[in-house]
Amino acid sequence: MLVDLWPPYGLTIVTPTVQLRLPREEEIAAPADVAAAGVHRADERPFLTPWAEGDPADRARTVLQGHWDGLASWRVPAWELGLGVFRAGEPIGMVSLRANDFPIVREVVTSSWLGLPHQGRGYGTDARLGLLTLAFDHLGARAARTEVFRDNHASQGVSRKLGYVPDGISVDARGDEALVSDRLRLTREVWTGRPRAAVTVEGFDACRALFGL
Fold this sequence. Notes:
The chain is of the alpha+beta class. It has one domain (2-211): Aminopeptidase (3-Layer(aba) Sandwich), CATH 3.40.630.30. It contains seven helices and nine strands; from the N terminus they run αββααββαβαβαββαβ. A nine-stranded mixed β-sheet has the order 7-8-6-5-4-3-2-1-9, with helices on both faces. Strand 5 (107-114), helix 5 and strand 6 (143-149) form a beta-alpha-beta unit. The relative contact order is 0.18. This is N-acetyltransferase. Residues 18-189 form the N-acetyltransferase domain. GO terms for molecular function: protein N-terminal-serine acetyltransferase activity; protein-N-terminal-alanine acetyltransferase activity.
């Protein structure tokens, strides 16, 4: 079976409102269609990924290529776990957890997007909670980082709610524009000291070797 060869297909994270799991090949077009319909309003630019450029098919292909690239390029020294966010069995977005030299550094980076109709309902917070539960409680991470544009108030709010603190800035190029993001950091000490909703993680033990554990 496919899950025997690639155990992350058996990894499932369940939060109070959403389920995170790796979409099967026959499923990946569905979250791509969610992105095609839009992940932010036309007057916003909350992501480094230029979601506003091109047409809906371009946005869908960005999701497909990112999904396939994460699977094809996985190595213990540098991996990215991209998971679909499902609500009542239907995809509403995607999240990712990535790391370099994780067995030594023990730090992860998170990123996410949700389709416009699903924003502002707490699903993004729960999806991040699921990723962080995997990172801290199962992978044994020491810290989690994220980078957020200063005017991306929704993502900034999620990070503050979960206990992230400022950790400097990053500057990235998008075309001819230099974009400044706040770099935010959540440590294991803060994570373990905060109350949070229950999250269930299944199928992780079979994945340990892929993470270098």
